Amino acid sequence: MMLQYELASLIAAAAQAAQAAGDLPRWELPPIAVTRPKAADKGDFSCALALQSARAVNEALAGLGGGKLTPVQIAERLAAHLPANPFLDRVEVAAPGFLNLYLSPTWLGQQAGAISEQGTDYFAVDLGRGARVQVEFVSANPTGPLHFGGARNAVIGDTLARLLEASGYEVQREYYINDRGTQMATFGATLWRRYQQLHGLDVEIPADGYPGAYMVDYARIIQADYGDSLLSASDEEAIPRFSALGLAIVTAQLADDLALMRVYFDVWFSEQSLYDDGTFDRVAAVLKEKGDLYDRDGAIWFAASKYLAKSDRDEVFVRSNGEPGYYASDIAYHYNKFILREFEWVIDVWAVDHQNQAARMPAMLKAFGIDPARLTVVLYDLVTLRRGGVEVKISKRSGELITMADVLEEVGPDAARYLLLSHSNEARIDFDLDLAVAQNSENPVYYVQYAHARVASILRKATEQELSAAGADLSLLAHPTEQALLQKMLQLPEVVEEAVQHLAPHHLPHFALDLAKIFTAFYGACRVLSDDPADADLTRARLMLVAATKTTLAYVLDLMGMSAPDVM
After folding, report:
1. CATH number where 533 lies
2. Do 26 and 84 fall into the same domain?
3. Contact 165, 171 (CB under 8 A)
4. How many other CB atoms sit within 10 Å of the CB of residue 322?
5. Distances (CA, A) of 419 to 242, 433, 443
6. CA-CA-CA-CA torsion for 383, 552, 452, 135, nearest 10 degrees?
7. Distance CA 372, CA 291 (A)
8. 3-state percent helix, strand, coil for the chain, nearest multiple of 5
């Protein structure tokens, strides 16, 4: 239930009733926004329709020969016609013309029962209505293990996918494998040399090769499978063979490492497949027919500037050596997404250093007659690891850059996911390894999960004492901390909607922490379990509230891809 929309409908009905009664003239109602005021004394919700409409109302009155009304007077007339509703307790008019709306405490108490009965369905927000959306994320080059910076990409992309699924979208998660071009040849050549070195040959890796010790690990895997049977190959034969063998090893390792973070993909899409199945040639033909390709300096260029108002820069589509330009695979890939696979919305999660590339993506969409609004590029900033306030750059295990697996081994997926989500995508993150493993209230991950464990403990003890919420009189949930807890739980659909509309998953950890804090305040102020018969009714009501809290906390943790422990 989205209370803002329900209240907006009530206010629209009040305006129509006031017009029908002649208390207000007829005017075109603007979109009615109902918001949560920051100050507690301004109501649970507030609406500024009277302020927004004052000019239009007075112009209508002038046309009828009437006098002017102040925004406060307009608000008073709206309030007088507000329909009765079980969730609305009262409305107050406040200068300079606000309608301040207060929810019914009795109705709020009943929501504990509704949440417990309906479970996560209570928080359903159907924004997508079945629309097909693809979230493409991580997509790191398949030439080595995933650096921890890529973990932020993984967490953002996966959480967005979870939010979209919870909001009525049909979601496909995709990893784009950059498995062609110079980098793969260099990768294959490096791996070939490492394999030769394992067999005692005095060879050097290429000057521009991959020096990491992980390449030796990959070579050992190939050695274990093939022994020395590949040594007789020439470089021309071995390099593509080792590129393919290494690609299979890296892709499997990426899948395993991402699974540690509870990240899974529906599709692992090969860049090379765009050339093998003719998609690239098909795209070139379409662009050529439209006059969007031209020759210059021995290369073929895409006329991107034709579609970008603020740019006179075109892009190389095919280089003079016959290889596709940097932008060319992106064009073919997104043609595949929108034209061939017909996704209604595509979300690409990219590091902030791709911002110039992101700004140029609308050109290729316009070239194919696709609304650029159907593509959203989510950019995220860098992550710095710190321990004891000092930046950590080197892995103890490999002596190289920190991998995602390194950090997960130390802090676990829950802490990693929460802390990587807790900042807006555009903000840089200082990831505190010490904080991530701290088991105290300073660690927000521990605090939130401990709140869930405490809730579960209360419900276990109730079962042991043969206490239940059956037949609870929920009107008894009138204590300020009980009402605050209910109010917070009812905000979750709003938080989900906000996170989806702005692709801003950082709203989830902030909501979870606030909910945990409010529950802790309730737990400190209100005794839940009592063996005093005089407290039986209140115990039943509070058990229902605790059960609703468990449902809500577990749901938001699941949206973040985190576990909801019953014991800590």
Report:
1. 1.10.730.10
2. yes
3. yes
4. 9
5. 38, 10, 10
6. -30
7. 20
8. 55, 15, 35
Give the H/E segment covering residue 135. Answer: strand 132-136
pLDDT of residue 394: 66
What's the burial of 212, exposed, middle or buried (CB within 10 Å: 0-12/13-18/19+)? middle
- Listing DSSP states for 141-206 in one string gives -SSSPPBHHHHHHHHHHHHHHHHHHHTT-EEEEEEEE--SSHHHHHHHHHHHHHHHHHTT------
Is 312 a residue whose pLDDT tops 90?
Answer: no
Q: Is the dihedral of CA 150, 154, 155, 160 positive or negative?
A: positive
What does each C-alpha distance from 76 to 44, 50, 66, 67, 134 come to in angstroms?
A: 18, 9, 18, 16, 48
CB neighbour list of residue 311: distance below 8 Å, 6 or more residues apart? 304, 305, 360, 363
Angle in degrees, 0-180, between the axes of helices 492-501 and 507-525, rounded to the nearest 10: 170
405, part of any domain: no
| Amino acid type, 284 | A
Q: Which two tokens mark 504?
A: 């801003």
- Whichever domain contains 26, its CATH number is 3.30.1360.70
Of 155, 175, 136, the closest CA to residue 253 belongs to 175
Together in a domain, 44 and 114: no
CB 418 within 8 A of CB 562: yes
**Length of the chain, please?**
568
Q: What is the pLDDT of residue 557?
A: 98
* C-alpha separations of 428 from 219, 382, 436, 543 in Å: 36, 5, 17, 41
Q: Number of structural domains, the chain?
A: 3
Residues 6+ apart with CB under 8 A from 279: 273, 332, 335, 336, 340
- Give per-residue pLDDT as tens, 6-43: 999 999 999 999 999 999 999 999 999 999 998 888 99
The residue type of 551 is T
> Mind listing the pLDDT tens digit for each residue in 50-61?
999 999 999 999
Q: Are 61 and 97 found together in one domain?
A: yes
pLDDT in tens, 346-389: 999 999 999 988 988 999 999 999 999 999 999 999 999 999 99
| Residue position matching structure tokens 């590091």 | 351
Does 144 fall in a domain? no
Amino acid 278 reads G
Cα–Cα distance between 459 and 151 in angstroms, integer? 35
Burial state string for 474-497 with b = 16 or more CB within 10 A and e = fewer than 16 = bebbeeebbbbbbebbbbbbbbbb
CA 392 – CA 413 distance, rounded (Å): 19
Are the CB atoms for 507 and 523 separated by under 8 Å? no
CA distance 258 to 95: 54
Identify the CA nearest to 70 among candidates 101, 43, 95.
95
Q: Residue 190 is part of which domain span?
A: 182-260
